Amino acid sequence: MSEPAPLHVPGWWQDAVIYQVYPRSFADGDGDGVGDLSGLLTRLPYIASLGVDGIWMTPFQPSPQVDQGYDVSDYCGVDPLFGTMAQFDALLDAAHARGLRIFLDVVPNHCSSEHPLFKAAVAAGPGSPERAMFHFVDGVDGDTPPNNWQSVFGGRAWSRVDPGSDADQQWYLHLFAPEQPDWNWRNPAVGDYFEGVLRFWFEKGVDGLRIDVAHALFKAEGLTDSAGTGTVVDGLRSNPQVSDQEEVHEVYRRWRRVAASYSPERVLVGEVNLAPHRAARYTRHDEMHQAFAFSFVKLGWDAAAWAAVGTELEEARREHGAPLTWALENHDIVRSATRFGGGEQGALRARAGLLAILGLPGGAYIYQGQELNLPEVDVPLEARVDPMWTRGGVSRDGARVPLPWTSASENAFGFSPPGSASPWLPVAAGWGSRSVEAHQAGEDSTLQLLRAALELRKQLTEQEILSPDDGGTWRVEDRSLLVCERGDRFLVAVAMGDVPARLPEGDVVLSSSPLTAEGLLPPDAAAWVLTQDS
Ligand code: NOJ
């Protein structure tokens, strides 16, 4: 028998619920049609009222906005589009005063082609130490790149520095858009640079960092062709040359030491888009604290598939000793109400899915608008701005539409102040009935369900019925009732079939739809059940 994995030092983050804010679509304070820090500050009481433990903010650092901020040109600043550093400091203080932690995004795989170090590298020319910060390589010839790798956003992953030049025949690597050159993590200077970035935000009091494309920083030595086409669809998994290289773990061991040198310890959560047993290796006790359970996000409405992946995640948790971290939505994924079938049924399922993940053992992340059960928007073709759309024909804009705050449609449903510019993405017609205002007025709204769930989750934790250290045991009953038993007194059940389901013995303490007159769980609903008198 192998030794059990050393456990993480327990911490608040283990069972925290974090609300993801996509700043440009959350609330527009200055009326330019783009959400910003002042808008977020004004709406902090709303986020606090949900009962979450903190906020993860996607990038607001200076950026040409080619990939909506994931092309960073200054890791330690605030883009004027979003506000000022003084506003960020005020936001951090205001959040802390309300007991909300703040997590920021760090984007270590690539920067913007406008980053001063990339511009210096282009200027310095082949063979220079400046170019060694990135992957500048001679092509096979002036027209043929160094290898067959493809960009996640479509097209090849290499661009010529200066296509017209005979003197400079080099190409640079970009796993995403050409405006997002990849750092060369085999150069120790890159690691030192990022340690400075981490310390800058940690010194300010930022509580944690979400690490973008965390599994892709190291590329296989030699940058050789990938087998097949070199395609990097599905989170880079299908190009092993750019994904999950062993050397990347040393980065996170170093970052963990940095995070642990602050008090309280800062938290690292990774976008590690890998199968459960590989992703779990990033959350060993001396690496990141959390990594999103991405394999769950890819599932349809299928009890057997949820149980199988849940079991796999649980096995990985036991093997590596890290708590699990659930999410059903983020700014890159089609909204769950649409993914689960759309229409009224999709909405019921999304609501059930939300209640389910909040009952599972571990932490959870919810994406702005998930509490409003927003569906994906079919953004008109001419309004789409996602580089993945322009280069690869897949648009993520539909999950990024500005949040509707008011039932009245004026000012983009209250997203912007009166007299503002049009929102950066058009708001969806008829969203007044889905607005925060409408949900606050509705007793059975998803917003109210979320509040009730988080309140109950706290109570059950205080009563030690739920524990941050719980594991989960998954099964399917009667072919379509998904059950996850958590600890020995609580379970989550989701009716994923066509007919009402009989629940296991116990008291239903919360459900996403009312039980039938016979006490059964209707299709497309979830329930939390106390299985012993407690
Ligand atoms: C993942 C981010 O969530 C996504 O929005 C971005 O386009 C890519 N990483 C590249 O940074």
Structure overview:
Helix 5 packs parallel to helix 6 and helix 11 runs parallel beside helix 15. The protein is an alpha/beta fold and 534 residues long. Helices cover 27% and strands 13% of the residues. Strands 9-8-7-3-2-1-11-10 form an 8-stranded parallel beta sheet. The longest helix is centred in the middle third of the chain and has 18 residues. It folds into 3 domains: 326 residues, TIM Barrel (Alpha-Beta Barrel), CATH 3.20.20.80; 58 residues, Alpha-Beta Complex (Oligo-1,6-glucosidase, domain 2), CATH 3.90.400.10; 82 residues, Golgi alpha-mannosidase II (Immunoglobulin-like). The structure holds 1-deoxynojirimycin (NOJ).
What can be said about this structure in brief?
This protein has 534 residues and is α/β, with parallel strands linked by helices. The chain contains 15 helices and 16 strands. The strands form 3 sheets. Strands 9-8-7-3-2-1-11-10 form an 8-stranded parallel beta sheet. The protein has a 5-stranded antiparallel beta sheet with strand order 12-13-14-16-15.
Label this structure with key terms.
534 residues, alpha/beta, TIM Barrel, Oligo-1,6-glucosidase, domain 2, Immunoglobulin-like, 3 domains, 5-stranded antiparallel sheet, 15 helices, 27% helix, binds 1-deoxynojirimycin
Instruction: Output the number of helix runs.
Output: 15
Task: Indicate the percent of residues in helices.
Answer: 25-40%
**Strand percentage, roughly?**
5-15%
What spatial form do the alpha-carbon principal axes imply? globular
Largest sheet at a glance? 8 strands, parallel
Mean pLDDT level: 95
Bound molecules: 1-deoxynojirimycin
CATH class of the largest domain: Alpha Beta
Q: At the fourth CATH level, what is the homologous superfamily of the largest domain?
A: Glycosidases
Would you identify the CATH architecture of the largest domain?
Answer: Alpha-Beta Barrel
Question: How many β-strands, per DSSP?
Answer: 16
Distance between the termini: 36 Å
Structural class: alpha/beta
Work out the radius of gyration. 23 Å
How is the CATH topology of the largest domain named?
A: TIM Barrel
Overall number of domains: 3
Unreliably modeled segments: none
Strand order of the largest sheet: 9-8-7-3-2-1-11-10
